[in-house]
Amino acid sequence: MSVDILDQIRQAVAEARATGDPKPGRPTLVRLTGATDYQVRKALAILADDKPPAGASAGEPEPPTVPATSGASARLPRPWPLIFVGLAAAVATWGGWVRLGELTGFGPINLLPGVGGGFTLNTAVVLPLSVEFYSA
């Protein structure tokens, strides 16, 4: 598999040279070979060195190989677990701002005094909302 990628890259570069086109870039080689970007970069580095391996005989050099990566290790890490960390930080920050609002004088107020039981609103949330909206 890895020698096949090297051969495909050599062939693509040779065809470009023969037709007078510029050397194909990594995205083109990834598309042509079906390999990952890492495998293509590694193969290009090996082809650029083009030195026989240390254990090769002087007559016939052993073809260089590109290490294969499994599908699981080639994937990028998923950021969804960071949602839990972000939510915990948001709750702690929000609680801190609301407590600071209470300490500065914001608190429950009766919106309709004298009318029935009244409707109370905790204005301590005004401070964090104001700060967050202002920063945005």
Give the rounded overall mean pLDDT: 80
Terminal Cα span: 51 Å
Number of strands: 2
Helix content: 55-70%
- From N to C, what is the helix and strand string? HHHHHEEH
Proportion of β residues? under 5%
Give the neighbour order of strands across the main sheet.
Answer: 1-2
How many helices? 6
Structure explained in plain terms:
- The protein is mainly alpha-helical and 136 residues long.
- The chain folds into 2 domains: 2-74, no CATH class; 82-135, no CATH class.
- It is built from 6 helices and 2 strands, in the order αααααββα.
- α1 packs across α3.
- The radius of gyration is 32 Å and the shape is rod-shaped.
Quick overview of this protein structure:
This protein has 136 residues and is mainly α. The protein has helices at 2-19, 26-33, 37-49, 71-74, 82-103, 126-135; strands at residues 108-110, 120-122.
List the SSEs and their pairings.
Elements: H1 2-19, H2 26-33, H3 37-49, H4 71-74, H5 82-103, E1 108-110, E2 120-122, H6 126-135
Antiparallel strand pairs: 1-2
Give keywords.
about 140 residues, mainly alpha, 2 domains, about 55% helix
